[in-house]
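Pasting two entries for a bug report.
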Amino acid sequence: MDAPLSFARPAVQVGTPALEGGAPALQLGSPEKPILQDFVYSRLPHRSIRLLRFISRGLSDTLECELQDFPLSPKGRLPKYHALSYCWGDPTRSNSLKCNGKEVLITTTLKDALLRLAALGRGSAEWIWIDQICVDQTNNEEKGTQVNMMREIYRKSEKTIIWLGPDIKGIETTSSLLDDMWRLHIEDQDLVDSSRKRRPYTLGDLEATNLPPAGDRSWEVLAELLSRPWFVRTWVIQEAVLSSVYPRMLCGSYELDWEKLLGSCSWMRSMCYSITPLSHNIVAWTATRSLNLFNDFKNVGGHWDMVTLLMRSTKFQASEPRDKVYSLVGLSGEGSDSTYIPKALQANYDKPCRDVFRDVTRYIIKSSANLRIFALVRYTPEGKALPSWSVDFTADAHWEQISYLVMSHHLRGWPSMREKPNNASDNLPVDMPVSPSDDILALRGLLIDVVGTPCETMSRSNLDSSGSQVLFAWKSAYEHTRNRRPDLARAFMVTLTANWSLTETEMMAHEPLSNFWAYLWQAYDELLKVSEDHDAVKRELQHVLEPQNADDPGDANLYRLHLNAAYTRRMFFSKHKSFLGLGPKGMQEGDILCVLFGGATPFILRPDGEQFRFVGECYVYGLMSGEAIRDWEDGLYAEQTFHLV
């Protein structure tokens, strides 16, 4: 693998294969042509589940099972059971399983898992819950009822068993690697608040830890392991977190230590991932993010609020779009009692997906009394299925936050993220008048100004290299507002970074202007290098640049490090009040800038007759700390209702 590491580790072998004693492999029938399933599901009694257990292997090497109903209520005689967490993979059911004397069709992935489970010692828990078999997948009503009970199903199981798929050659080599990283995780972790006791590792620091060198097979195996699809499926969050004890993780015939994998990946992600042999593996990076979320659940505990769960799980995937919401309800405060889940969050597979997303967005805004969920909204052009204000939970969720998110508490005490330091609505809660229809969201707030012509959309590659887009955006700002904004340079410097937090106490607003000027001069020099007419470039741009101070020339790279918020966003200027802002790429001239009650940031809306379409959140210099609310209280703005469609 291509990686910058070249250090060695002591040869230590830790870990045991999950199968011992050479247990014989069982085989399920795999007919060349799919056969019709002759097993018929009976109606499940109220608050009951089906459980499966293995009986024997038939004469034709077909695994035989028994499926039986059990009440989930405390008074019921619920036997000890495990719950299986796995990926369906190819949904084609081409493998037969004999269940209660009848044929049930299952996927190939589940067939492999069952063969492994049948040979696995599971103590006194002879029963197991497996969604594909224990739930009638053709019955939407039953599916919804069972999903609403999922928290209890996994909580009441003896343990969750995770099936990652077939064997990986050399997987035993990961044992000592995970052992070494686990040791570093423990050493570097503050036992009081789970924070890190030291700064992130440099390459020299990491080499001194004696982890394996870049070419060691254990890194390749770990990368292959983390590339298994289980790590990015949205249902696995609940399945792993709700396990009453640490899950049992199986990869083919090998068993991994869940706690060590969790701690090792959390340590690697926070301390050194970019300088490990995994640094160029995007899929592995995604898996470490998932494991980091599991680690946060372990450390924070409790029920989280829905908006935090949805924001933390945007990169997870689901074959059924509605499951992007339903799979998280069991972890939320709202889902702590399956007999009383708010209607908007109750699993209903007969309800159109657009209506599920719309109603969940509205519910979250109303129940949280803030507009934090709007950070996930991507502008939807007119004519698209969803209302513009509704989150599409299946959309590409890659976005750079404007607000810094920190753990706090929901109004009802649940762990929750809050936006910091932005507070555009000065802690006022959401004001939601009655809407004329389900597709319209009525919100109260203040119209601040009209948007002028926005600058070009900033690309990550340009910001990280030449910086020419920033240079021309600065030229536009200089020519439009220099006579009306004596603080223009600082306003631009801060706005382009959305005043990102550098430390717990320092923001970009506290940084010297010299770094900003150094970045612009570097962009100017890069432009001269590629231009065929140097004189034209100088005439157009040199007059907008302030001469650098020889005693403090600044560091362009220090400023470049904090431009994440500008990725795929646009600088803009308001027409009448000369506000300078950083807004969504979909904004255009004639949109309006407003502050909505309950919002940490201002927002861009697009007039649509007497209504408005939601375009996105923005950073606006001079509006991020409740200034508009105080001006409204002084009579400078008028409150109004915005009907979003």
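Entry 2 (this is the one that rendered wrong in the viewer):
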Amino acid sequence: MSISSPYASKPWLSAYAPGVPAEIDTVSQTLTDMIDASVATYGRSVALEFFGAETSYRTLGDQIARAAEGLRRMGVKKGDRVALVLPNCPQHVAAFYAILRLGAIVVEHNPLYTARELRHQFEDHRARFAIVWDKVYDTVAGFPADLELQRIVSVDITEALPLGKRLALKLPIPKARRLRAQLTETPQARRPYPWSKLVGHSRISRRAPRPGLDDTALLQYTSGTTGSPKGAILTHRNLRANAMQGEAWVPGLKAGEETFYGVLPLFHAYGMTLCLTFAVSIGARLVLFPKFDVGLVTDAARRTPPTFLPAVPPIYDQLARASERGTIDLSTVRFAISGAMSLPVATVDRWEEATGGLLVEGYGMTETSPVALGNPIGPSRRPGTVGVPFPSTEIRVVDPADPSVERPAGEAGELLLRGPQVFQGYWGRPGDTAATLLAGGWLRTGDIVTVSDDGFVSIVDRLKELIITGGFNVSPTEVEETLQSHPDVADAAVVGLVHAGGGEQVTAAVVPREGATFDAEALRDYCRLHLAAYKVPRRIIEVDDLPRSLIGKVLRREVRDRLVEKG
């Protein structure tokens, strides 16, 4: 029997920090309008910093316009998908907004993916154009002709370095050679089209179409709530709304004066919104790092101290320990927001003791652009919970077996979300979309939660069996299929086991084929050939059999329990 939602009155509003509104203003800007406004307002201010090289908002706007014109002449039209396979770098930011300027659709990719993983996504979205890191150019150029990739732009990220660092990379010494090999590689495949040529055009023609609020801006790949990776469709309205919600959530932000550290990858939904849209929308300086490294962050902090740091718990732990050793000063960080994985209370305590600032946890998913809940930035925060709904966001807690049935307050159930940041569905997957988006715009999260009387949400469990490691989603099925393709493996089950740091470790239970010798390290090596590093099982454990249901389905929960017992 259905009952009225106990959360319709939004009891969490009393926990909001002073000045945070219950609702955000109506979204009136596309992301293209947003970046144009920032360029006009903050033109002389620094928009991007990369190893000390600075790019002003005015210069960034010019690069975006030139790249857009280059793409237009290349044949990119409104509605076309353009793939980005880039680490964090200034070219990534310019390419992102240049694609949107034409009304085209950005498709983000992890540049550390294997060829098989990238090809799977390209086969799904069928983009005809790609802008890629020169280190992965040969991989993408090697895709079969039936993918119909018309043009691949190659990006050498060292071109964005300060002159002195570019010259240092050419020195004939081992350290310089190693660093250069990490940052760039000369493609061997067909002659690449360089980024420098793309931005060598004049500014964009006024004839080029511009996007509308409800046009698709981004396909963000996620394992979502149903297993295999799929493209979440996010519109300009979705992404702009989430940036506005983020701005409303953080009282005391100083437009044009903040310094955000981009240690999260921009190709990830969390890094994309907190850095590519939110930071730029308020005229912040975005300090970019191609990867997280304590030494790189320490060097940058000496030049440009951070004020806003979005990250994941392991990063906060490492930086807090560096602060305790006296190697980095984090006292300038006023705002720190953790997401993508569980935040241990011990990490909060360590960070706040080291910095004197607040560290709060939020909750979201790619399908919510991605942030939907957050702890208030103030004394009403509640460590150990994922906070309360953002402005203009509603929640329900329902029976997982029948989402039309509300659960009473305080009783565990599946979390449903609704708000302007909720996605439009999965690219080319109407069945998955229908299973995830319910009537009235409600999103099934697949997470089992409890909600306190005053609206604070605590995660109890996940209906979905995704593993969250280092802030990334790992589909157990994908890892299992890789292991099962090994000639020595008869069967495999993959689960996430919680470790002391608060995240999960990918762990595999493997049944060897009869007569085969079990070699865990050899299986890990095999996985490394086919999977990104974060998907490779940290532990592979030999078992005699796997628990199954009456219809033969492996019971991953029982597998997890058995592995926990084994220690």
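Dev reply: Rendering is fixed now. As a check, the viewer should reflect this: The chain is about 30% helix and 25% strand.
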